Amino acid sequence: MGLHHMTWLKDGKDLEKNDRVSVSAHFSGGVTLHIANLRPEDVGNYTCVARNSFGSDSFTAPLIVQDVPSIKEFKFPANLSPGDTVVVTCVIRKGIAGPFQLSWLKDDKPLEPTASLTMTSIKGGPVSTLAILDVSAEDSGNYTCVAENAAGRDRFTAYLAVTG
Description:
Elements: E1 5-10, E2 13-14, E3 21-25, E4 31-35, E5 44-52, E6 55-63, E7 70-71, E8 86-94, E9 101-106, E10 109-110, E11 117-121, E12 127-132, E13 141-149, E14 152-160
GO biological process, one term: homophilic cell adhesion via plasma membrane adhesion molecules
Organism: Rhipicephalus sanguineus
Keywords: Disulfide bond, Immunoglobulin domain, Signal
């Protein structure tokens, strides 16, 4: 007795097929679920249910969609003078799948905290804040926020100018 019926479920509900979601049957009796152009809303538990006259069986697998992070643009305030304090925030606006690793560079070199320079973020989170107290001309330069997750990386650079 062969296979009589095969269905796919997403999160326990019948899977709706559309122009991105389709199922193909194989001569061998198997089926393949195809999902084109994955989106965050595709995340979930997918279950294949096979039924015949002898009963049924199923297998469930999670689908995790990971996006490359995309950093929201930031800029430093204009007309900074020596002694001012500056704070900028690096925010991941796209790329829902953490954990994220956020780091800062100055002129393409890793930035290290000092008494007047701090970098704050929640481990694995999508936000990092850079604060520089008592800025001086030596603080002028290109500051880059780098965001990484398992899917890839993004970076954004802004120039800090201290005049006067």
